[in-house]
Amino acid sequence: MTGTILVAGGNGYIGSHVVVELAAAGFRPVIVDNLANSKPEAARRVAAIAGAKVPLLVGDVRDGAFLDAVFEAHDIDLVIHLAGLKAVGESVAEPLRYYDVNVGGAVGLLAAMRRHRVRRMVFSSSATVYGDPVSVPITEDFATGATNPYGRTKLMIEEILADLVASDPAWRAVSLRYFNPVGAHESAQIGEDPNGIPNNLFPFIAQVAVGRREKLSVFGGDYGTPDGTGVRDYIHVVDLARAHVKAAEALLSGALATGAHLPINLGTGRGFSVLDVVHAWRRATNRPIPYEVVERRPGDIAACYADPRLAASLLDWRAGFDLDAMCRDHWRWQSRNPNGYEEAA
Ligand code: NAD
Ligand code: WQD
User: Would you give the end-to-end CA distance of the chain in angstroms?
Assistant: First the structure.
């Protein structure tokens, strides 16, 4: 399929992989990003992988005049909205900043889309909207209830999309609820490059493996899970990116003409414990990965994994990469770029 897709936040970890897959599928991606959490080198590498020019338009999704210029210069068919802030702890400390950037950014982007009659959006939501689920696996009709400001911004944006689609049937919107995205492109040219101490398990282990950190702290060994450590649904970022292509195709072809906003889980449907992940990293790296079990991290839940059948039936999408491939590709990126994009600057 062809078409021009504005990828807001397209210079970030997930967005850069989405742009590569869009280009591979025949779309023309246009990146909008304010570089708050990414470096221009990412877009240069994306263009090299894609073998195509990919415009990087530097600006903020809250800036209406900037967005008007983007929509006037490019004939946009659909928007994939990944721009925003994503650190749970930071959102507790700075809620207004999160509501401003995430909710304000989404409203600003949707308003600009309406001005330019672009009414197709794929939104980056999160499994965090399920809060502490009553059971696993999680289907899309489970009760939602975020437990922190970051999660509430995702829920609010989903509700805004639902209201918008209900107000005008010309709109179509899908919220992709990501479980735990990990891994990197097989070229090892793009990947996750967190600032400071990583909050998330994979980037932390990657830095232990590469020798930047001494050992992993395993947050809690007394959950009601098979080995007592937290269980999550890790999903390879390239699988995740391909689901965005499928969602864009389904919205543009009219295959998802439901007249309602659709939330769709993106996960593998399998849960792995922290210790399963440590063992997989040892296999992938042939390195020891020292760890110590410490106190639970406040706000964490025991187990969270998806029922991914709706994505299979509506988007014809299934995850293809297993946990070993996720570790292998994350490691290839980390070991070839021990300081992320930094040395290339
Ligand atoms: P990221 O920080 O790597 O990417 C986000 C990008 O958005 C960055 O390049 C940043 O510079 C840009 N950005 C931030 N604020 C902006 C603004 N106001 N205007 C324009 N650009 C802006 O994060 P990511 O991991 O790629 O996540 C992408 C999206 O997916 C986010 O919305 C995040 O909430 C969501 N998500 C991520 C995860 C995860 O574990 N990584 C899980 C679920 C959902
Ligand atoms: C995974 C498991 C930890 C780090 C977060 C956000 C969520 C979503 C994805 C955006 C848990 C354990 C972790 C460490 C550990 N993001 N862990 N030591 O918490 O499932 O989800 O990222 O939407 O909103 O909350 O991911 O990678 O932080 O943790 O033991 O140093 O690893 O306790 O069981 P989480 P994570």
Answer: 35
Reported as a single tens digit per residue, the pLDDT across 98-136 is 999 999 999 999 999 999 999 999 999 999 999 999 999
Quick check: is 150 catalytic? yes
The Å distance, Cα 221 to ligand 1 centre, comes to 30
Instruction: Report the separation in Å between the CA atom of 120 and the middle of ligand 1, taken as the mean of its atom positions.
Output: 19
Whose CA is closest to 183, among 305, 277, 119, 252? 277
Nearest CA among 57, 54, 50, 53 for reference residue 71: 57
Q: Quick one: which of 292, 289, 290, 293 has its CA closest to 331?
A: 289
Report the Cα 320 to chain-centroid distance in Å: 17
Bridge partners for 60 per DSSP: none
The alpha carbon of 84 and the centre of ligand 1 are apart by a number of angstroms equal to 5
CATH number for the domain spanning 141: value is 3.40.50.720
Ligand 1 pocket list (CB less than 6 A): 9, 11-15, 33-38, 60-62, 82-84, 86, 101, 105, 124, 126, 178, 181
In this prediction, residue 345 carries a pLDDT of 42
Q: Which of 59, 76, 79 is nearest to 3 (CA)?
A: 76
pLDDT at 343: 62
Show the domain range for 187.
Answer: 4-344
Identify any residues that bridge with 262 across adjacent strands, giving them in sequence order.
174
